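Troubleshooting entry. The earlier prediction with zinc ion gave an output that would not parse, so I re-checked the input for stray whitespace and re-submitted. Clean input:
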Amino acid sequence: MRTETPQPIRLSDYRPPAYLIDTVHLTFDLAPNTTRVKARLTIRRNGDHAEPLVLNGEKLKPISVAIDGRELAEAERTIDAEVLTIPNPPAAFELATEVEIDPENNKALDGLYMSGGRFCTQCEAEGFRKITWFADRPDVLARYTVRIEAPKSFQRLLSNGNLMEAGDLPGGRHFAVWNDPFPKPCYLFALVAGELDELVDSLVTMSGRTIDLRIYVDPGMADRATYAMDALKRSMKWDEEAFGREYDLDLFMIVAVRDFNFGAMENKGLNIFNASLLLADPATATDLDYERIESVVAHEYFHNWTGDRITCRDWFQLCLKEGLTVFRDQSFSADMRGEAVQRIKDVKALRARQFAEDQGPLAHPVRPSSYLKIDNFYTATIYEKGAEVIRMLRTLIGPELFRKGMDLYFDRWDGHATTVEEFIRCFAEVSGQDLSDFFAWYEQAGTPRLDLKHAYDAAARTLTLELSQKIDPTPGQPDKRPLPTPVRVGLLDAEGRTLAFQRDGQAMDETVVVLKDAKASVTLTDVDQAPVVSALRGFSAPVVMTTDAAPKDRYVQLAGDPDLFNRWEAGQDLARDLILARAAGKPDEVGEERYAHAVQRALADQAADPAFKALLLALPSESDLALARQPADPAAIHAARDALRQRLSLHLDEDLKRLHIGLQGLGDFSPDAASAGRRALRNAALDLLAANPRSEIAELADGHYRAALNMTDAMGGLSALMQIGGEAFEAALADFFDRWKSEPLVIDKWFALQARDPADSALGRVLGLTAHPAFDQKNPNRLRALVSTFAGFNPARFHDPSGAGYRFLADQILAVDGFNPMTAARLVEPLGGWRRYTPELGALMKAQLQRIVEAPGLSKNVYELASKALA
Ligand code: ARG
Ligand code: ZN
């Protein structure tokens, strides 16, 4: 048990910094266990006060502290485990400090650490304080000059900005000096040193400047950075065209590292990436990997303006940069890969991660008001819901005014740290709209429940829509206000053709109804016949919607809603209801047949994009289904979903086999969206065939695996074999390991695949894999491949009635917490849903959370999430 309860940090306690730091000179003398860091900071008092100077610093071995060249006596300063305090410093002065740190033993991967024998950094959110004493808060912006000295075996010496000087030193050593002319908060500082190969390219910007582009990777891997480089150049052009944003330094660098707690990091001019989100070639990366690389390269690049040039005043404003930058990368991906398919994928991810979070004990607003560890708030709510809020803003004021508001924001706040209020103020100003009610989307947690009822009056030719919203209580927020919610609506006739109508005397095909209060009613006129209502098109708001539509309306939509999102959604709604009925012991066999038939017709649509069809073939995930009806029984859901898959498989047998043959790849691999879409559909067809295993399908899957010329198809074959199980699967699994054992990113896939195996025997296999020589808790990618995949994507086995799945997760959390609290904390979430499950399962989950909270020496990170999950 903890002896003291950690105290939360609150937004309402925000105070401007007592001292500002204008320039920073750092000198690194790199050595794995004994790196020396000298800092010279020019500091000035901010305002008129007598407060001490308090600088953050953790795990630093003090060597010296001097003011204006004079070493301070012990009595003139205090140093504890978290801060350096200097009472009564002058109004303006230079502080010179020296510390020693041990990057080699830094397994938290926060601050300066070593990965694969190279030095690298991760400073967001509060890692810089593990490098030197500093005001480690995002509203202290300084200009940095960084000198790095190291043995020449650390070949490349990189930091932010421009290279000013480099050369040799005596004793087989060398140095480099970097200067970043743009003031930045310390969380954007980066340093990398080590042996790396380089992929070089360049790009001419909109104003005609040539930018030097360099991607650094493990020796021998430069070829695998070509796709990331291509994505980078497309991102840079896109940001010029879509937002008028030009790159500002002469050099842009990206480094890939193997050991990284997150996806990637937007350090100024020197992005650092988890290698899994940067390296790709057809043999080792799947289409999904390519897709994620494209979007994350874009995301980190876009941060140069939304994050770096304009940053956050405090960490409560995290969504200011993250939600906005996700919105920007989603818009980019939509332009690269097709709007509808991108939107469906984004909404699937939102539902799977954010909706679950928002409906459980860890629910928090897009802008939280308190935290223990900010690292726990890099959540789906801040990122994905944060992006949805911006999308709604754009829908509400329209694309032109949205762009104007962005321009004003860039103009007004460039070079500053600011807040969400100031961001929204820009849009209120350019649109003349009062957005104060809209701001509640940032402050209120919870997924709104929207209900839509419709009534057609044939005599009057009018359609009345009755909308209402309700938001359930979330932790700390028992009462909710209504949120202004844009609902995009169109009408279809019985054949699925667009039905025009009038609203306020204006003829139109589509309209946006804004639900401002708890209830609203809208009447559309000139409606020729009883329509099918296609509502919440493009998922215009992050809500759970219920309607009074009959299944026949959904079938009309599935066959031909011109809004492709809703066409897909109609299929998902039908499938969900059928699966839930079956899980509740009331299977609707007639409905299931009808559904299979409708999917068959949708598949036959020659005009539809293969990527879209692949999405149509996938049933709602087990975790989405578990959210839809509570208490959830994962075993019943799994069985019912499998049964519907089997029926589809039988019904579509011929069609699926035809697709499988017809879409066979010819010629060279290309990662473009159209080729990826064809592979996705072919693999989805195989996947569904495998739901009804017969010897011919086992052979088909085996042949698919063995004939694969790229990783997408190899994984497609292997997962189909996994569903079928038996000898062929075991043989392929062994073959795969053997073939790829020297490729860590591929071996991650090998672990993740087995973690997703729904077979009865899989839990035992997963437990056994922790003893596999290739398993490594200290590498976050490997840990997540096995543990997060199992807990998050294998509900049938994670929720084993014995509780062994939960115990396994808790064991891993406690072990990892001993050296990497941030990554351990990110494993807690699957236990947080304990109230949503059947009482027997819920009690077993809760018991593991209790065990975690009571463990001695627990980190604040894990404590915060586990204790909130229990509350
Ligand atoms: N800012 C990074 C991004 O682009 C993520 C940093 C994650 N840091 C953390 N402490 N969780 O998304
Ligand atoms: Zn980001």
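This one parsed fine. The pocket of arginine (ligand 1) is lined by residues 124-125, 262, 264-266, 299-300, 303, 322, 375, 378 (CB under 6 Å).
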